[in-house]
Amino acid sequence: SCRTVEPLEYYRRFLKENCRPDGRELGEFRTTTVNVGSISTADGSALVKLGNTTVICGVKAEFAAPPTDAPDTGYVVPNVDLPPLCSSRFRSGPPGEEAQVASQFIADVIENSQIIQKEDLCISPGKLVWVLYCDLICLDYDGNILDACTFALLAALKNVQLPEVTINEETALAEVNLKKKSYLNVRTHPVATSFAVFDDTLLIVDPTGEEEHLATGTLTIVMDEEGKLCCLHKPGGSGLTGAKLQDCMSRAVTRHKEVKKLMDEVINSMKPK
Amino acid sequence: MFVNLGWQGMGQGWTQGSQLKGARGQHMQDRECKTGGFVLEVTQLPLAEALKVEGEADPQRTAECELEGVGLAHVSVLFQIRGSRARALPDRALVNCQYSSATFSTGERKRRRHGDRKSCEMGLQLRQTFEAAILTQLHPRSQIDIYVQVLQADGGTYAACVNAATLAVLDAGIPMRDFVCACSAGFVDGTALADLSHVEEAAGGPQLALALLPASGQIALLEMDARLHEDHLERVLEAAAQAARDVHTLLDRVVRQHVRE
Asked: Which residues are the signal sequence here (chain A) (predicted)?
């Protein structure tokens, strides 16, 4: 059966042999590449490619007044944009459903994993704090957007350098010392692993756009380095047994190690020679 | 000038390049140019919404063009029938351009709503430029969407958009009359300057944006801001045209290399 006429049958033939049309195994990720610090107008930036899926994250830091109920905490505000540029499925205009779900997912990951301690963003309690606007733009959509966004966010936050700010006692104005910049203290490294469910039984990792379209359900697990679960996102779809879920968790742990290795390489390349 | 082709180049960073000095101290900023994707075969469009060409899964081509010091624009071109059928023109293709600027692209974070004045104006300028260059008669009753996303702006965004869009349209296999190469130019202290950076633009002198079809020397679009004495116009125009021709040499080389691979 032809790929365009009966895509599901086409896929089933491959899955029976425990592999996929692009040659990957069921538990194999696509080639991941990451590039940090390329946008000089942003305070921190990262570009992540997961196969063809490309996401760029730009972080900009601004001043803000802290919330009254937590006067020594700053803000981290994520936003995911899926423009019509990345895929024909998106139209221009206000953010669609998928973009909003992705934005909320990233916000949950930031909150649950405590990737940045909000107290670290405080400059002067009750008066001045940092707000980090993390804007993620998808440049090419080929499935598994959540993993790419999480990784891009992590890499960009690790790339952010904030200048030293002191409050002048006499004038009560903030003085920014652009010459003295320091990296953010990124406390945890949440890594997302996404799966697609085929025919209610088979789980494949890192689905491409076509695979996501044919899948009967999806699952995303966000894990941090101590094997702690930060987030589990399973928006409906076919049911999964507990045992299958455990398999997914162990794959997520392995993926975390792979990503950590890549991140360490990137961090080392960032250090001044 | 240094050219880096293909997505593999991404991992190595975008900062490599060498300076090209033009005549009379007109320095052009570092340029680097990449194309990605594969050539789409142009076929008569079916009435179904999704365009699936034999052997290709996604009829979308992207190209990225960075004129360093000028800005990074990412462009994607889509080719299909979509939207209201009533808008389709019976004898030629409709060209639709949309411009979008990332919030982190400028020094100050600016959250621009979709469809604001600047985006619309840019979109319109791009559309007018490309309607002049694309052979729209060859594809009646269809729509060509050109989406431009600016990731980093450091002056000359219109030029970067046009150059990137040219590459994207070529990559998509859409027939064009010629390359469209663009460059900005200004006039400061009696000297014509090509390819202005953000700082130079903000200085407030007259600025010119020029889009050229290099082979015939025809001007597709020319826009000028602020007051400039007509005696100086020719010099500034020549500076922009020369820079555009240099960009053309670069783009031509990149495309030929890409096709050879």
From this structure: none
β-strand partners of A34 = A48
State the Cα–Cα distance between residues B148 and B155, nearest whole angstrom.
Answer: 16
Largest CA distance in chain B: 58
Higher pLDDT pick, A15 / B52: A15
Strand A128-140 relative to strand A75-81: parallel, antiparallel, unpaired? parallel
- Quote the pTM value: 0.81
Question: How far apart are the CA of B200 and the nearest CA of chain A, in angstroms?
Answer: 16
CB-nearest to B103 from A33, A94, A135 is: A135
Q: Show Cβ contacts of residue A61 under 8 Å, excluding neighbours closer than 6 positions.
A: A43, A130, A131, A132, A133, A160, A162
- C-alpha separations of B199 from B37, B154, B202, B241 in Å: 34, 8, 5, 22
Torsion of CA A104, A108, A111, A112, to 10 degrees: 180
- Interface membership of A31 toward B (CB under 8 Å): no
φ/ψ of residue B221, rounded to 5: -150, 140
Q: Which residue intervals of chain A are DSSP H helices?
A: 7-16, 97-113, 145-159, 209-214, 242-270
β-strand partners of B126: none
Q: Given an 8 Å threshold on Cβ–Cβ distance, is B149 in contact with A139?
A: yes
Q: Which among B104, B111, B34, B21 is positioned nearest to B67, based on CA atoms?
A: B34
Q: What is the mean pLDDT of residues A161-168?
A: 88
In this prediction, residue A22 carries a pLDDT of 85
Cβ atoms of A181 and A163 within 8 Å: the answer is: yes
Q: What is the pLDDT at residue A172? A: 75
What's the gap in Å between the CA of A243 and the closest CA on chain B?
A: 35
CB contact under 8 A, B60 and A4: no
Q: Does A21 touch chain B (CB under 8 A)?
A: no
Identify the CA nearest to B149 among candidates A54, A155, A98: A54
pLDDT of residue A151: 95
CA dihedral A178, A184, A185, A187 (to 10 degrees): 170
Q: B53-78: per-residue pLDDT in tens?
A: 222 333 344 454 544 333 455 666 65
Q: Is the pLDDT of residue A119 over 80?
A: yes
Residue B178 pLDDT more than 50? yes
Q: CA-CA distance, B28 to A262, in Å (whole number)?
A: 36
Q: Do A49 and B114 touch (CB under 8 A)?
A: no
Whether A15 shows a pLDDT value over 50: the answer reads: yes
DSSP-derived 3-state class of residue A199: coil
Please indicate if any CB of chain B lies within 8 Å of the CB of A49: yes
Of A35, A88, A137, the CB nearest to B149: A137
